Give the backbone structure.
Amino acid sequence: MKYVFLINSFSVKERFPIICEAIEKVCEEEKIPYTIEVNSEKVSTEEIVKKYKKQKVIFMPVGGDGTLNRVLNEMVGTKNVLGYIPFGTGNDFHRYNEEIHRKGKEKIDLIKMNDRYFINVACFGIDADIGNESDIIHHQWIPKKQRYNMSILYHFLKYHTRKMKVSYDGETVEDDYTTVVLCNGRYYGGGYKVGSMSSDTDGVLDVYLVSKMSKLHMASLILGMKNAKHEKSPKVKKIHTKKLRIESEKMISCNMDGEAYTAKVFDIELIPKGVEIYHDSKIIQKVLQYKSGGR
């Protein structure tokens, strides 16, 4: 199959020529048929993906989880396969794939939220505020590894709960939530292991409902997420479901796979084996190695 490397020019910026050269060298070495596409202010990611709807290709978005999500949403329903080269701030989908030692092509569960889709993690409340804080998350002068931490600190100081109604499997729970997190994968926020045992092939979503708490308790919970210690907190309720609804009287924000989404009602449903993905550590490592001048 032909590889389409879709470069997010907003992520790579001045490193664009180096990345293009790295892709070309790797594809020539591996004898891979390929095309390089680049989004811009004039040509969107979605417009590029549409060009290939009637073909069968492997998309290799070069960017972060948000770029991956935009490609996913445009290719759902086609015969195309979703690969990637991790070059963003968080790269949490890549982190999960490496942890489970994924290889090659595999069909995974797809999550539909209203008219959008995601494959890794979606969150509401303070977690969404943190992930959607674009002024910090995309700030060029803040080191990539520190951007989520800076956003956490900023929203920790502004912290407030959201009143939400969560309905699933015949039950409805209404509460003031610190956050609600939906896990198909395991990581978000650049390495926070929220879904410690979540799997994108088991046919269920792991949902974490986190009640209102003091700032002291919340700080402890956030720190504990690095090692999945939040699972033991009495403030955290974990459920497994294939379908749920989240409602609010006011507009609330969600962050799904790095992309912001706002609504009052979110209808969420898992589609078993709904999308085919491609993970090739060899290609990823070689492109990143060339890009960094390692070859």
